Amino acid sequence: MAELFDAVDVIRVKRDKGVLSQAQIDWVIDAYTRGVVTDEQMSALAMAIFLNGMTPVEIRQWTAAMLNSGERMEFAGLGRPTADKHSTGGVGDKITLPLAPLVACFGVAVPQLSGRGLGHTGGTLDKMESIAGWQANMSNEEIYRQLGEGCGAVICAAGSGLAPADKKLYALRDVTSTVDCIPLIASSIMSKKIAEGTGGLVLDVKVGSGAFMREMPQARELAETMVDIGEAAGVRTVALLTDMSVPLGLTVGNALEVRESVEVLAGGGPADVVELTCTLAREMLATAGMSDVDVEAALRDGRAMDVWRDMVAAQGGDPDCTLPVATHTHDVVADADGILQDMDALKVGVASWRLGAGRARQTDPVQAGAGIEIFAKPGERVAKGQPILRLHTDEPDRFERALESLEGTLNVSDAAVPERGSVVFDRIALSRQARKE
User: Fold this and answer.
1) Pair 28, 7: CB distance under 8 Å
2) Are 144 and 282 within one domain?
């Protein structure tokens, strides 16, 4: 069968700052998935997009083409609305764990298909696998049953049938220096999220040193692009811009973050984790038509904890298990009396990664007990010799490199530090009029 286009012609259009037609986009994504367009040719096209950008229409069409490369889940028959959340990744970002059961306890199903950590950002599945017996892989039938007849919340791995073109293109971008390209980032995220079949989607776009987008203008552009894609696809979509200049909460790592998540579900936990969990929960419930919901009460009275326990057990996990603990620890202490000035999220994330909590390649193993406990945050007064961080690992020879990554942060002086405000910087959504148009 003759191909509709030639890859060289498609590459030339974008190389020369032209606009790809829908037919060209549909063909090139399909042909790349089939192997007709080679990695070398797609690399050239990805770099042309990186350098010359895409129009909003092109981005939507590119996303749709990747979405159409595989299957799409459908939850219309559940008998309850669905809402999902996606985070662009950060340090100590365990929000999915308490958030999914919190939203589900109000009768909104949460199909939270998640991934694994890579580099300094943690992965939700790695955290959940700290729980004895818990299984990440589920069939579509099992997911549907757990959302409809079961507890209403699922945290699991995405199936290989969802947006296979994205999986192939993502791997290529990783080795061709085209990862940090907003059109390709937005279409990658949204093709998978729309394929999950959710009715509402809330995006947590991190901003700061520990985030993929370190500056506000780029983070805002990414958020606005993804909201536009979601709404164009018929998914009620909202984005929050949130702080990732310091780690979220008081733990970084897998089992450590599960422990902290359970504390939140029990009505406690760090204030920033609780704030973001509840804010995202309200936004997710609003996409399902529920407003003025007292989500904090569901944490205090145990409803969210009940769903958590049911969700963990339904996937083979033991909600009462003893979480793994690393065999070695090392305290990082204050070198003077004074006020802790800084705690760079990226440096802490890299330290946790080097301790064994993260991976450099998708195939690398992780340590369940590795990570970092945080005993003081910027702006708090500390005494000389007081522990600021506690490093955890099963391999003590990892401490040296972890400590190297912390150089240049955790400074103590007498200077006052501005009080940290809300972890949420801004909210981005289409107006009702824009949605109608």
Assistant:
1) yes
2) yes
